[in-house]
Design a protein that fits this description.
- With about 450 residues, the protein is mainly α.
- It has 26 helices and no strands.
- Helix 6 runs antiparallel to helix 7, helix 12 packs antiparallel against helix 15 and helix 24 packs antiparallel against helix 25.
Length: about 450
């Protein structure tokens, strides 16, 4: 980023081109090139102009086109947010589409100039998943395989695109895993294939949905048959531990699976999940070293940083937690979801001014994000600016009227200003809770306040 924002385009282009050339010559792993270009996967409007100037200065280089494609794709997802469709404002989808319309041709130009770009093909698969159909995904994948037939990154991205979540099937995923294990059994780049079912189970156990991983594999009966063939023809070299105690804690089961895998395949993801499992087992003092190892293995992985902030806060080490929050925000300085959480932390340690600054940054991509509005309203509330707080809460209900959380906080704000319309807000909250589900504490408050306010307003 220093070279880009400093206008040192010649040096930047030379470094990235050199990395790609060494990869193509077999002297560098694809991971190194991918890691270098991931620096452009960040929501940061300050990169707009430098990226355009770089492309205008070096139009025949694949590097600026690839960087712009990855940057626009990241912006698309930052502005879309992570909530389900029904709880996302339509304007977020429109803005997302505009960024995707910018990303796709830039990525296409990059692979036209140099077709040996795993991260570019992977991003094109992701784009096809989002705005295309199964045919579009297959078309991109087949074109990529002609150019980079041994790219683990490509196969991993396509495997994800085959998931039922994206209109694929567990059968197709299992078939691809079988083919990959048959053809790349001795290649460490494909250890993710061997341990895929294990990693799925780890997440299911830590989320306390022990049946989830099984149901996913059983969505189509053929999937279990292919996994049976995998076990028959390509058995694991290590024995799999199975808990004999049906009362065993899910996190303990997850921990055993992780500890079986780690000697053979250490990743930041596994270390982070090991910390998660230890936390759920109340082995709190063992969590920090695991998160620290995850950060060491992947310094720019925001999830590991945020995990560390939470465990540091639990230990009342707020200064250290703040350090990791700053590092996470540096990786992705304008992502609304990240900044809302960061502002919440800052408000909790009485850094109100800085919390406000982060929320103002969140508005850049989150103007139509109801979470940003709610958190901004909370901050105004803490600062005693109730008129502004009420306006933000109301705006959230207008942006996403289906979200019960918005109506709950709007009700609180109305009640604080002694407005009897709080009753209607709470009733709307309770009605939506029947559809979406809500926590018992907020539900209890709403029910109680309806009675209190109704008596007072009558």
């Amino acid at each position: 980023m220093v070279l880009l924002k400093g206008g040192q385009y010649a040096e930047l282009d030379e470094i990235l081109t050199s990395l790609q050339e060494r990869y193509e010559a077999g002297r560098l792993h694809e991971w190194h090139v991918t890691s270098a270009f991931k620096a452009f996967e960040r929501a940061d409007p300050d990169m707009d102009e430098p990226l355009k100037v770089w492309r205008e200065t070096y139009p025949d280089s694949f590097a600026p086109h690839l960087a712009i494609g990855l940057y626009a794709l990241k912006q698309a997802w930052a502005i879309r947010g992570e909530k389900v469709v029904a709880l996302t404002n339509p304007e977020q989808f429109k803005a997302m589409q505009r960024f995707l319309d910018e990303s796709k041709p830039a990525l296409g130009e990059a692979v036209r100039i140099n077709p040996k770009l795993p991260i570019a093909w992977g991003a094109l698969v992701s784009t096809a998943m989002t705005v295309g159909n199964r045919h579009d995904v297959a078309e991109v994948y087949n074109a990529a395989r002609e150019q980079i037939p041994d790219s683990s990154l490509l196969y991993r991205r396509y495997h994800y695109a085959l998931s039922p979540k994206w209109g694929g099937s567990a059968l197709a995923q299992s078939g691809l895993r079988l083919w990959l294990r048959w053809n790349y059994s001795d290649n460490r780049d494909y250890l993710w294939v061997r341990y895929y079912s294990d990693t799925e189970r780890i997440d299911a156990l830590l989320l306390h949905r022990s049946g989830h991983w099984i149901s996913q594999l059983l969505q189509e009966i053929g999937a279990t048959e292919i996994d049976r063939l995998i076990s028959y023809f390509l058995p694991e070299r290590e024995n799999v531990e199975h808990s004999k105690d049906s009362e065993d804690h899910p996190a303990a089961q997850a921990l055993r699976i992780i500890d079986r895998i780690l000697p053979h395949w250490e990743t930041a993801w596994l270390r982070k999940r090991r910390g998660d499992a230890l936390y759920r087992l109340s082995r709190i003092h063992e969590v920090i070293p695991e998160y620290a190892k995850a950060i060491e293995l992947s310094p720019h992985w925001v999830e590991a940083r945020i995990g560390m902030t939470r465990i540091m806060s639990l230990h009342n080490r707020y200064r250290d937690a703040h350090k990791h929050w700053k590092a996470a925000a540096e990786v992705d300085p304008y992502d609304p979801d990240l900044l809302v959480d960061y502002a919440t932390f800052l408000s909790g340690i009485h850094e109100k001014e800085e919390a406000g600054r982060q929320l103002r940054k969140a508005i850049v991509y989150g103007a139509h994000d109801d979470d940003v509005r709610i958190e901004t309203g909370k901050l105004y509330w803490v600062l005693g600016q109730m008129k502004s707080a009420l306006a933000e809460m109301k705006r959230a209900t207008e942006l996403v009227p289906e979200n019960p959380n918005n109506w709950y906080f709007y009700g609180l704000a109305l009640q604080q200003t002694k407005n009897c319309n709080a009753v209607d807000a709470y009733k709307t909250y309770l009605r939506l809770c029947r559809k979406w589900g809500c926590g018992p504490s907020h539900t209890s408050v709403a029910q109680s306040e309806i009675r209190n306010i109704t008596a007072g307003c009558d």
